[in-house]
Amino acid sequence: MFADRAKISVKSGKGGDGHVSFRHEKYVPAGGPDGGDGGRGGDVIFVVDEGLNTLVDFRNRRKYKAGDGEPGGKKNCRGKDGKDIVLKVPPGTVIKEAESGQVIVDMSGDNREVVLLKGGRGGSGNQHYATSTMQAPMYAQPGRPAKELDLLLELKVIADVGLVGLPNVGKSTFLARVTNARPKIANYHFTTLNPNLGVVDLDDTNGFVIADIPGLIEGASQGVGLGHEFLRHIERTKVLIHIVDVAGTEGRDPIEDIHAINRELHAYNPEIARRPQVIAANKIDVIFDRDESALNAIKAEFEPKGIPVYPISAVSGEGVRELLYHVNDLLQGLGQEITIFEPEYNEETAFLQDSDVPCTVEYDRENREYVVEGPKVEKMLGYTNLDSEKGFSFFQSFLKSSGILEQLEKLGIEDGDTVRMYGHSFDYYK
Q1: Cβ(215)–Cβ(226) under 8 Å?
Q2: pTM score, two decimals?
Q3: 258-269 burial, b for 16+ CB within 10 Å, e for fewer?
Q4: CA distance 38 to 19
């Protein structure tokens, strides 16, 4: 079964909690704190595997989780780090945030390995909290929480040239002739279900990758048939070869066939429809008495629009060489860069927009400090590196946008007062 789309959930590992303990040695009556740090939670890592060409493995399993970090122990023993989880995907896989559909990363080009979610940092043991005035701290920092995302994986094949056309016009036969691909070929009135790729080798040149893009029938851009499932594979191609049955063996008008497919391309993505296109007028070997009226009509319709028409026979190979060299010349003029889909999803912005999770802001009279708690705050701390300037700036933006600063001011907070959030203590300054 071919699978080019999958929805999964991934979760990194939680950081291990710091430990509270004290030295107990025979001749040391007042041993100091020796609680160890918690281990780091495991990361969620995506890597490209050249041996894969589908996402079918993700159809059988939907949830993936890295290992949690172990808690710290006595005698300054650090907890063991959680095990990373490595997910292998075929080249050309685009990873999106499921709800928004925004691109997180495109596993193409130089993106061979990506740490998508980092595990939570381990909490500090009580040995770190000893001071001259508090030599026996009973507190250790909890591990940072895990991160979790719902993902949409989409495979967009990496090919220089895409073959388009209605079913049964000879795309699979053409691909089999010009490449090492071996697609199934039969006189079906429905469409190939798998996008087939092959490499075209030409003398004195590097050649190119070509793909038979299936699913293109009228209404494909609206999702009719398998339209949406396969139109995405055209998005990386630089040149389109539009194969048409010039002999009309199916009783269709070849000119109208070309217009019909171009309408679907434009409806799906106008930018794709503007890419260089070459018409391969196929099946000239079965034109009765070589009546070229249909071929001449196609040339008259499209060549004035800058779309060249090449008469070919995918069965005999007639005209194929000339077509391929023309396509190769087009590619040389367009450059070798792969189309990479730029990241759109911003983890920090998405978190700030999540304003539905409540938090509490209270004053602790016994310890004379302000306490901010709630799942939203805990999640924010897990997502943020407070040791970096960018992370701390994000933290301040969060406090303001979530209304926490406003609530603190209503409670009467003043410069120099302490604010505690899940083991973190901050001095407040307006």
Answers
A1: yes
A2: 0.66
A3: bebbbebbeebe
A4: 7
